[in-house]
Specification:
173 residues; mainly alpha; two-stranded antiparallel ribbon; 2 strands
């Protein structure tokens, strides 16, 4: 679970210098893939191809950004919503995998709290994306507010994920 945790950190946070992201998302997805490969369970296995897709997708966008490609317009917005759906499904499978780990190991990893936070942050993510893609300045402003709340929810999610990871790995050694 450590690799998945670090993958989430690389995906959630962006440190840019001269437009270059020092924590590129594609590395986060690679970390998630590695983590999924180390864990047993049907849901973790199902999530692996989606992690590969997201890694390739993110790598292509990283390269495109480096060479100055512009990603805008309605088609790009639709594609962004498509990849958001892939991301949501992949992370949902990871949540179900953690639930499976609770059953398999008989340990309380805090799945219910983690899943509740995941649902809230996922709803916020979708709302934020929809608001940001509008041309209405009021909705874009509301989207910006939701973005701040979304960032806070990501931090809370990471805290709960870290607790689950720590419980799982401390008892697994």
């Amino acid at each position: 679970m450590t690799h998945i945790f670090w993958g989430y950190i690389l995906i959630f946070f962006h440190i840019k210098i001269n437009g270059f992201d020092l924590l590129p998302n594609f590395l986060g997805y690679i970390f998630i893939f590695i983590g999924l490969s180390k864990l047993e369970g049907m849901h973790f296995k199902k999530a692996k191809p989606f992690a590969v897709f997201m890694a390739i997708n993110s790598l292509l966008f990283t390269i495109g950004g480096l060479i100055g490609a512009l990603f805008e317009g309605e088609l790009f917005a639709i594609y962004n919503l498509f990849t958001l759906g892939i991301w949501i499904y992949m992370s949902y499978l990871i949540m179900l995998g953690i639930k499976d780990l609770e059953v398999i190991t008989g340990r309380q990893l805090g799945f219910q709290n983690l899943f509740t936070i995941w649902k809230i942050k996922t709803i916020l993510h979708v709302i934020t994306m929809l608001f940001v893609f509008t041309q209405n300045s009021i909705l874009v402003f509301i989207g910006a507010i939701f973005t701040v709340i979304f960032i806070v929810m990501n931090v809370i999610f990471l805290i709960f994920f870290y607790k689950a990871k720590t419980i799982y790995e401390s008892k697994n050694d």
